[in-house]
Amino acid sequence: MYGKAFAPEYQGALGAKLGVNSSYEEVLAAAVRARAEAQSPLERARAALAAGEANRRLGRVEAAGAAWRDSYRNAREAGDSGAMGWALWSGGTLARQCGALPLARRLLTHAVALADGADRLAHGYALAGLAETGRIQGDYAAVADLHEQLLAQARAHGEPRHAVWALSGIAQMHRNTGDLPKALALFEECVAIAAAADDSRGHAWSLRGVADVRSAQGETDPALELLSEAEAICRTMDLAAALAYNHKMRGNVLFRAGRYGQARKMYALALREFTEMEEPRGRALAALGLAKSRSRIGRDHVETLAELDVLERELRRIGLREALRTLTAFRDEVTARWAAETDGLLDGATMRLTPVARATS
């Protein structure tokens, strides 16, 4: 049904040199050379697009932002709507990575319009970006059909990367709404498709999805093994963001298993990684996991609740509905524990005071 995975974001001469599994340092070096050798605005646009994607994947946000804007300016000078669509897709993807979800939706919407009829793949990638952005925001009703449409298109054209993206999104929605068996089946299908297509990046992300669901089903050690397998791929390909999300997921798995001290260390590692690459969404999610872990190993309830208040504002700013639901549930748990402990202390104090009160009455 599917062919081998390819990377249409590497275009022109770069497309002949680079593939879906090229390391991002390699991509960046090739893009810099191509930019220096470019003889036309379109060639410069293509080189800048590749540089933007490499920098984004490496967590170099400022350089990625400059590159996609340069790509768009050159594509506009060339009068190429498809190339402009690719540049805005890159910018929208970067905005989503940085937690600027409303901006991501605007850029990706413009990318869809520009690429429509001009570049089928750019159009599909931009639609996939819109679907993923809506899913991250928790707007499942708005994007569920879009995921299914993208999956149908991917299957019709034999495009494994699009199939993995669409299936992963559908799987994540099932996972978040509690249908773990369905989510597991879809993530495992993603693993099979990515492996057969030699798509290492898609393989790593899909393994992370399987690990998440298996952990939620109580299979801690198999989940950790899957994450180790995915981590090796991330390190080989210089996938900085994917590696940070892998570490954050390892924290999730350890937290569910009640191994709170280990979870705290993994969340702290992920938080540092997200902070270094200026990724607010990942940083907020890792900070939430860290707050939960520290609370479970005895942190003061007042300090925990104050931290959750700060995190709630950040999650609302970004627009992460699923994470907000998690935060609210944990806040309720902390408040209930605090109330129970306070009641117990008051009861104990009353029992100790009663004999004294009688003696002096």
Structure overview:
This protein has 361 residues and is mainly alpha-helical. The protein folds into three domains: 137 residues, Serine Threonine Protein Phosphatase 5, Tetratricopeptide repeat (Alpha Horseshoe); 82 residues, Alpha Horseshoe (Serine Threonine Protein Phosphatase 5, Tetratricopeptide repeat), CATH 1.25.40.10; 117 residues, Serine Threonine Protein Phosphatase 5, Tetratricopeptide repeat. It is built from 17 helices and no strands. α8 packs antiparallel against α9 and α11 packs parallel to α13. It is globular.
Keywords:
361 residues; TPR_rpt; Tetratricopeptide repeat protein; single chain; globular; 17 helices; 3 domains; Serine Threonine Protein Phosphatase 5, Tetratricopeptide repeat; mainly alpha; disordered C terminus
Helix- and strand-based class? mainly alpha
Quaternary structure classification: single chain
CATH topology type of the largest domain: Serine Threonine Protein Phosphatase 5, Tetratricopeptide repeat
* CATH architecture name of the largest domain: Alpha Horseshoe
Question: Which percent range fits the helix content?
Answer: over 70%
Q: What amount of the residues lies in strands?
A: under 5%
Q: What is the CATH H-level superfamily of the largest domain?
A: Tetratricopeptide repeat domain
Shape: globular
Mean pLDDT rating:
91
